[in-house]
Amino acid sequence: MSLIQSNKTARLVFFLVSVLAGLALAAPSGAGTF
């Protein structure tokens, strides 16, 4: 159970990081998005 839970958490963290990276790459200045 703990292994599956940690795997789901890792997937969620990886998803959030990828989304933030996409936003940072989409915005030339990086501060314009926020």
Structure commentary:
The protein has one helix at residues 2-26. By secondary structure, the chain is an all-alpha fold. It is 74% helix and 0% strand.
**What is the percent of helical residues?**
over 70%
Overall morphology: rod-shaped
End-to-end CA span? 38 Å
Cα Rg: 14 Å
Q: Let me know the number of strands.
A: 0
Largest sheet: none
Strand content: under 5%
Q: Spell out the helices and strands N to C.
A: H
Provide a count of the helices: 1
* Poorly predicted regions: none
Overall residue-averaged pLDDT value? 80
Global structural class: mainly alpha
Question: What's this model, at a glance?
Answer:
The chain has one helix spanning 2-26. With 34 residues, it is mainly alpha-helical.
Features:
mainly alpha, 0% strand, rod-shaped
Q: Mind sketching the topology for me?
A:
Blueprint: H1 2-26
